[in-house]
Specification:
Length: about 300
């Protein structure tokens, strides 16, 4: 991967635009975003991209909101380079992106009531493999540009834990996306963006200074109809595990259901590296008002 003089000029003129265009182009052209065994089926639509200040106070708040183990961007970058957080550059940025599932995939999953459709399952597995490649590409690009960069989710120090509420990690991609102004959380524990909730997200920390994206949401749940007082509850009705209620999402009950029904990637065409492992069914992310848009925004427009 080379970084041309033209690229340097683009970087100096508008670094945020360059990063967005690089992510958009990779999503649009990479063979990794296609299922070779399904005639090159494209998994992800055009991405959403946001930026956060690496020292935004919200990252320190996550140590209380999530768990003390949750890393700040400064800690994550320092750990990747084997240094102290105090040794990191003065200004850090976080790049966060959203990958929306294409319409055909979403449509196929709307028809299901117990387990995910094949297209949804393929997208969940191979689509995350693509997401890993995109993380790697962005880190390499930034490195070639002369900047420090890391994708915490891909680092050896990334860890998952379980407490009485269920699984959590020391780097939550959804919470990073919230910090970057890309959406808010939902009753089902998903993340509702302007392209809906049927998405995957990822992030990279760097010392390239990028313009901070505004967090325009009124609060951490303001894109969810339930939390603004609308009698929606569509995700509750969609959940075959009865793991969603008006009080939220029961992660342990959700996981238990997926294991009990015996759904495994091995039972789906495509191989999945011959791995017998469970993936989320995604039923609460389809056939719901927030599937492919921000329903609160649409509702407010209709009321104007």
């Amino acid at each position: 991967m080379t970084f041309s003089t033209k690229d340097k000029e683009r970087l100096e003129k508008n670094p945020g635009e360059l990063i967005y265009e690089e992510i958009k182009e990779f999503v649009g052209t990479s063979s990794e975003n296609r299922l070779s065994f399904l005639d090159g089926y494209v998994m992800w639509d055009e991405p959403l991209v946001g930026f956060a200040d690496g020292d935004d106070e919200i990252f320190a708040d996550y140590k209380t909101i999530i768990e003390p183990e949750h890393l700040t961007p400064r800690e994550a970058l320092a750990e990747a380079y084997g240094k102290s957080p105090d040794d990191m550059p003065t200004h850090l940025s976080v790049i966060s992106w959203i990958l929306p599932a294409v319409e055909e995939t979403r449509k196929s999953n709307r028809l299901e009531s117990r387990i995910p459709s094949r297209l949804w399952s393929h997208t969940r597995w191979y689509g995350e493999k693509f997401n890993e490649k995109l993380r790697e590409y962005m880190v390499t690009l930034l490195d070639n540009m002369g900047y420090l960069a890391t994708a915490p989710f891909s680092q050896p120090y990334f860890k998952t834990f379980t407490n009485e509420k269920g699984p959590y990690s020391n780097w939550s991609e959804r919470h990073i996306a919230y910090a970057a102004g890309l959406g808010t959380f939902s009753l089902s524990d998903g993340f509702i963006t302007e392209s809906g909730i049927a998405i995957r997200c990822a992030s990279v920390v760097t010392d390239l200074v990028l313009p901070k994206s505004p967090r325009v949401a009124d609060g951490p749940y303001s894109n969810c109809l339930h939390y603004i007082g609308v009698n929606c509850l569509a995700c509750i009705k969609r959940c075959p595990a009865e793991a969603i209620s008006e009080t939220g999402h029961d992660k342990l009950k959700c996981q238990q259901y997926l294991h009990e029904i015996g759904y495994s990637r091995e039972s789906y065409a495509g191989g999945y590296d011959n791995e017998k492992s469970i993936a989320g069914c995604g039923l609460c992310q389809t056939k719901v008002p927030c599937e492919f848009e921000n329903p609160v925004k649409r509702m407010k427009k209709e009321m104007e």
